[in-house]
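R.M. (postdoc): so does anyone remember the format we settled on? I'll just put the structure tokens first.
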């Protein structure tokens, strides 16, 4: 991009930004975040050689054609579904050596108070991991970070400083249902009442059962409770040959088209042709099975169900924890971690048929956004700018943190719409991306023993009277 166009482009952005800023300062007084003026910038700003209209006077490569047909001639700059994500530590429910907090719900605001629900475990022993969890393990030893947990809640006035209020829904003491752990809650607010959907684990974990559990529900007249458990499954597991026969996880209700749409995740287990389950790794016999994650949706007229699974399920071929919100007349989904479409923002104009709309870097994990119109069902979703998420699986207890983004139609946070996120030293050498010693030794062996050498051919060009393509 030559400097003259670059300066014009930047001045265009700056002008628009400054206009926005004046508007914002005039209207709200807060810096950097401006009310989005109009959805499409009319200044004609464009990338050099990439006109805003698709050229028809020259051949286009597949990638350039895709820029027009699939994306936007302004690339991420013009893509309302693209955002960077920035993180903040939170107080009150953040990092804590003695307590695990994870899988935050969507955030609800009632008058001036924000509410969030999450999985909380406080155990004497650290989780041992399912592959080490034997039948003779004492009952008070957790198999996983979300074992021996309950649903707690916290409140805040500003989204950064939180106060843990205590247990919202606790596991049953004894009895034959939901007596081992409750985890991964999400909230629904309809008919003046509040409904929490969560994973209910009955009985000890076992390698055989893996992470299998029910999704159950509790309701209350106030976000502060008391909560009344229905003590039965709300969404049934699929049959053993169904995509969602392995688990029903991460229940995520929204109100859409006048009904309750409860999105969920399932661990889809890998099977050999003969039908037996594929083990996760030959190295550690007995490790939980190999699986892939996908999402589905079940729809009901009333919070207590019956929930009817969509015949189109699975409606996402990738992803892990569920994070969705109403947007325009459709639904946006953040697809993270697993599968061919991991780390993408997807949009379904009908809530069912999702298409990839943007690729994103280091998205929030198990994000629970503040989404005021999550239950409005008005077919005019405005989007999100922040929420809570978690960091888990690095040895210590899981903890909550805040994410900020710009996936909102009315709020303009230009600083989150551009710029490249690249991994720093710490990110490269975090546990999951550092090459283990034993693979390093193997790589050295491969380097020493390989016969491969770099090919250095004699390039014979047309001037030698030779057609190089023959
Ligand atoms: C999370 C969620 C579910 C799983 C476990 C706790 O990432 O997908 O909640 O059961 O991990």
């Amino acid at each position: 991009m030559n400097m003259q166009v670059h300066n014009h482009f930047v001045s265009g952005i700056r002008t628009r930004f400054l206009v926005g800023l004046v508007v914002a300062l005039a209207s709200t007084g807060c810096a950097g975040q401006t009310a989005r003026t109009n959805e499409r910038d009319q200044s004609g700003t464009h990338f050099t050689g990439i006109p805003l209209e698709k050229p028809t006077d020259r051949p286009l490569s597949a990638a350039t054609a895709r820029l027009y047909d699939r994306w936007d001639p302004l690339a991420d700059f013009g893509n309302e579904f693209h955002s960077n994500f920035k993180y903040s530590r939170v107080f009150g429910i953040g990092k804590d050596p003695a307590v695990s907090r994870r899988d935050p719900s969507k955030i609800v605001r009632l008058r001036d108070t924000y509410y969030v629900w999450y999985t909380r475990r406080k155990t004497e022993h650290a989780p041992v991991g399912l592959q080490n969890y034997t039948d003779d393990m004492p009952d008070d030893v957790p198999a996983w970070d979300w074992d021996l947990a309950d649903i707690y809640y916290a409140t805040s006035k500003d989204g950064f400083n939180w106060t843990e209020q205590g247990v919202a829904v606790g596991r049953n003491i004894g009895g034959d249902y939901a007596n081992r752990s409750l985890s991964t809650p999400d909230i629904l607010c309809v008919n003046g009442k509040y409904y929490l959907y969560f994973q209910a684990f009955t009985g000890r974990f076992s390698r055989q059962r893996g992470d299998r559990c029910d999704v159950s529900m509790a309701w209350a007249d106030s976000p502060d409770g008391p909560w009344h458990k229905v003590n039965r499954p709300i969404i049934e597991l699929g049959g053993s040959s169904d995509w969602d026969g392995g688990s029903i996880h991460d229940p995520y209700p929204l109100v859409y088209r006048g009904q309750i749409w409860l999105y969920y995740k399932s661990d889809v287990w890998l099977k050999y042709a003969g039908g037996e389950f594929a083990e996760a790794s030959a190295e550690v016999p007995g490790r939980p099975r190999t699986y892939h994650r996908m999402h589905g949706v079940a729809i009901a007229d009333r919070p207590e169900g019956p929930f009817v699974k969509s015949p189109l399920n699975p409606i996402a071929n990738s992803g892990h924890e569920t994070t969705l919100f109403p947007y325009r007349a459709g639904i946006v989904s953040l697809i993270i971690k697993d599968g061919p479409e991991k780390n993408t923002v997807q949009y379904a104009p009908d809530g069912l048929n999702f298409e990839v709309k943007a690729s994103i870097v280091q998205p929030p994990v198990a994000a629970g956004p503040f989404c005021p119109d999550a239950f409005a069902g008005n077919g005019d979703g405005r989007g999100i700018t922040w929420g809570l998420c978690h960091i888990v699986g690095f040895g210590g207890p899981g903890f909550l943190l805040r994410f900020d983004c710009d996936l909102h139609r009315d709020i303009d946070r230009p600083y989150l719409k551009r710029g490249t996120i690249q991994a720093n030293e710490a990110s490269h050498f975090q546990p999951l991306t550092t090459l283990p010693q034993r693979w390093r030794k193997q790589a050295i062996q491969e380097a020493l023993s390989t016969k491969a050498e770099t090919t250095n051919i004699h390039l014979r060009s047309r001037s030698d009277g030779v057609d190089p393509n023959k």
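R.M.: ...and that's the designed sequence above, right after the tokens. Also worth knowing: Residues 1-6, 25-33 have pLDDT under 50 and may be disordered. The first helix runs from residue 3 to 27.
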